[in-house]
Structures are given as C-alpha cells and as structure tokens.
Amino acid sequence: MSLEKFLNTAVSSWMNQEGPDSDIVLSSRIRLARNIEDFQFPTVFTNEEAKEIVELFEKTFAHKSYVPFGKFELLKMNELQPIEKRVLVEKHLISPHLAEDCAFGACLLSENEEVSIMINEEDHIRIQCLFPGLQLTEALDVANQLDDWIETHVNYAFDEKRGYLTSCPTNVGTGMRASVMMHLPALVLTQQMNRIIPAINQLGLVVRGTYGEGSEALGNIFQISNQITLGKSEEDIVEDLKSVVQQLIAQERMAREALVKTSNIQLEDRIFRSYGILTNSRIIESKEAAQCLSDVRLGIDLGYIKNVSRSILNELMILMQPGFLQQYAGGALRPSERDVRRATLIRERLKMEERKYQEMEGDEK
Fold it and tell me: Can you tell me which residues the record assigns to a coiled coil (predicted)?
C-alpha cells in the first residue's frame, strides 16, 4: 500500500483540521462515564452480563446514524487482532485498559472518528468526543447530546445526591473527564514546566503524558485534565479547565517570544538540525523522533519552516507509533525493524509535504 493511500484510511479527519489556538492546543476531549441500572458494574459483573450489554448496544446503536458524525460501527475487542487494537489506542479512540484487559469489551465508533463510545471498560459506557484545538465547550455539547441519545434506550445508575454512579469513586458525580492535549516546547526549553505542574495540581487538575495516566510526555505534549467530578457542574469543570489552559497558552507564547529574542540562532539551529534528522535518518527511535517532531512543529509555528503544514505533528506522532508502523508494514515487526520503518515513513511523509508545497507555489506562478 502506498503511503498516500494508507494516510487516507489511517488518519482521523479531525487530525488534519485546525481549531482555536491550534498552534498550542492539539485537541480537546470530553469523556462521560455511565453505568446501566440493574447490571453489576464491570469490576464484578459476569461474562453473561457483559455479553448482554454488548448485544444491547449492537442491536440499538450499531449502523445507526447520528448527525453530523455518520453511522456508528461496533468493534468487539475479542474479534480484533492485537495490532488493530493497538492502532485504536494510538489514535486515542479506546483506552489501553479496554484493549488489553476487557475480553468482552467493545467500541461504537463514528465514521469521522470524532466520537467513540467504549463499552464494558471500567464502566459500562464511556462516551468520548474529540475536537481539534481548544473546543471543550463544543465537545461537551456534543457529548451531552450523545448522552441523551443513549439514555432514551437505557436507564442510567444515578443517585439524586451523588449523581452518576461509577466503578471508581473519583468519577462519581458528573462522571466527566475534560482534557486538552497541549504542545508546550518553549515552557520545557525554558525549564518552567517543573514549576508549573505542581501549581496546576493544586488547582484540582492533573498533568499527564501523551497517553494518559502513567505515560510519558513524548515530544513535549502534555495532557491536562480535571480530577474533581463531584460537587461541580460539567460547565463549571470545563470553564475552570479552560481558564488554566488559556493561562498556559499565554505563558507558552511568552516563552516562545523570549527564546526568539534571547537565543534566536541557537533555536533556529536546533529546529533545522531536527528537521535534518527527520528528513535524512535511516534509523530512529520513538523518543528521538518525538523530540525532533516537537522541534519542527515549533519551527513551523515560529515561521522558520514554511514548507510543512502544522498538522504534521498531530499526524506523525500517531503514525510513528508501533501499532501503526506494523499495520503499514502488513505484519509484526521487531523493535529494530520498527526503528527503520519509522525513519522511512517520516522521510516519505515529509517528502510528500514538500512536493505539495512546490505544486502550490507552481500554481501561484
């Protein structure tokens, strides 16, 4: 399969879109945890109950359309290959827990992949909406609409005092996790993140890596999300998170301006060295690739690099992951083979981008 054809089928449409503050905020996500009344929670339910819940969703929602997201397809975890499940995790469409530990788990996935509804993960239902840029309010509106759609067919486990009941006590209440994925290279380069993270934690928010809890912040990408779900409305949680994110955006922009003023030639050298590595290397590990992609994205945002689109970071950070590399290769790869394949894919993708810009410039002439 050619890279171009692979990209057309592999990359979610929202990854190539830009939203508000897309230079720093890569994506916004709302996740709602819900459980169905009269069923035991997934931590203790039987295999028969798990199958019954999946059958309920398959009968009620699979192949049904919800405007503007198109039809929903039901994916059963026990019918997917390990590489296929890994790809879904890498695209942030399902959690590692659903992929690895839920034999009778499933996922309802919209055609445009902006919406995924995980079934029988830690809770019976986890509704997830992904939007480009800083669009938490918009994502919440859609999540609430989907929540209402599902609730017309099932009764939720709900308590008048405590709110939505969940397997983990930290999700009781709204059952909502709001999060944003942010690219913060200047705050890392100026060594401010070590000071900022504890301050964010004190506000009832948490800072995690690219793939959530326990993951590393590869490529200077951080996930900021709420911790408190009880005693606050969904709207208040979103507004509190937005306020902190907007402050982070302002600080990142100031840090970028300071780097340009005080270390311009060093910064430019770093950016173009990283671009050179990505366009010429024959072997590259994921950590080095992520750091180089971060530098190049910063170079695009600052105007040093003009022949590569901003969405390249979103795309290549996904494509360089093990699952995607093996899917593109058509089979399992050893770590050393993945490093070679990763370098090749990145080189090819950047060449495609350069050709596109050359064609655009030719059309303008």
Answer: none
Which residues have CB under 8 Å from 36's CB, separation 6+?
53, 124, 125, 154, 155, 156, 157
Cα dihedral: 136, 138, 143, 146 (round 10): -170
212 labelled binding-site residue: yes
The pTM (predicted TM-score) of the whole model is 0.90
Q: Which CATH class is domain 1-17+30-173?
A: alpha beta
**Burial status of residue 238 (CB atoms within 10 A of its CB: 0-12, 13-18, 19 or more):** buried
The annotation status of 92 as a binding-site residue, yes or no, is: yes
> According to the annotation, is 28 in a ligand binding site?
yes
Cα distance between the two ends of the chain: 33
Q: What are the residue ranges spanned by the domains of the chain?
A: 1-17+30-173, 256-357
Residue 180 labelled as part of a binding site:
yes
Q: Is 210 flagged in the annotation as binding?
A: yes
